[in-house]
Amino acid sequence: MPDISTQIAGIKLETCVFNASGPNDVTLGELETVAKSVSSAITMKSCTLKPRKGNPEPRYHDLPEGSINSMGLPNLGYKEYIRLASILKSKYNKPIVASISGLALEDNIIIFKAFNESKADLIEFNPGSPNTIGKPTMGYDFEYLDRSLNEVTKICKKPVGIKLPPYFDFVHFEEVAKIIKKHKVAYISSINSIGNALVIDPVKEQVAIKPKGGFCGLGGKYIKYTTLANVRKFHELLPNVPIVGCGGIYSGIDVFELVLAGATAVQLGTIFMQEGPSCFKRIQDELRGYMKSKGYKSLGDFRGKLKTLD
Ligand code: DHB
After folding, report:
1. Closest-CA residue to 284 (of 10, 18, 9)
2. Tens digits of per-residue pLDDT, 159-183?
3. Is this structure's pTM higher than 0.90?
4. How many angstroms is it from 72 CA to the middle of ligand 1?
């Protein structure tokens, strides 16, 4: 069978498919479900300095081909995720990805320092949530992005990745790539949900979820092509930075396409919400099957080798 193992910043992953930060990863029980599945790593919910209840419900809604959410960072606070990382590591011995989404730079500095003494293997800095009421999407503020990446990469002794929001303009990709080059960024996770979508129920003549008047982050199949474009563009601009593709992956062929575009690994979000933990094995098996049908033995055989028409 083809080998779908990979590595990010020296951390070996048995397969290139694991869970995205966000869905079903807030509590120890949820994280143990990920641990017991064949997800090749355990990614935890983005955490803040203090525990948060998040936005009022309903705040998640399934769509025919995706999902919307405006969770508002419900999490147990960073201290608890340091404790959970230690429990999960000793019980399951899988790579652990911590996600950090402090609401201010000072908070991020405290949290990153604390995670130096944790069992997390990779630390994902997430300046991309579109759902925190009263806060802009920080990944669109390039001055803030530069300043905070500088601070957190200086402090952190572990590999720091960055979860990026989607970009839509080549000038923005270039600006972000320039910032990433300045700092010690171990990997990019691309993309976060597409911010501030709006879903309307035409019968009830109302929005689908409660927070922010219905404005929400969009995920699932609706965003796969934006994910592919973001992964491709960052791979072109930063060929030596591993990219974890995230957004709209439902099948092994979706993973194959992302690796062709340049991804080193992928994270599953909406499909994990909708299908549960069996999605990891199904998608890994589908990827192996598709690679076999093409005669590929490992991801390196085709990673980044997307053909263009010229
Ligand atoms: C939330 C949503 C995101 O897209 C994200 O990156 C972090 C947090 C949330 O609403 O909880």
Report:
1. 18
2. 999 999 999 999 999 999 999 999 9
3. yes
4. 6
Q: Is 75 touching ligand 1 by the criterion CB < 6 Å?
A: no
Give the residue whose CA is nearest to atom 6 of ligand 1.
129
Which amino acid is it at 257? E
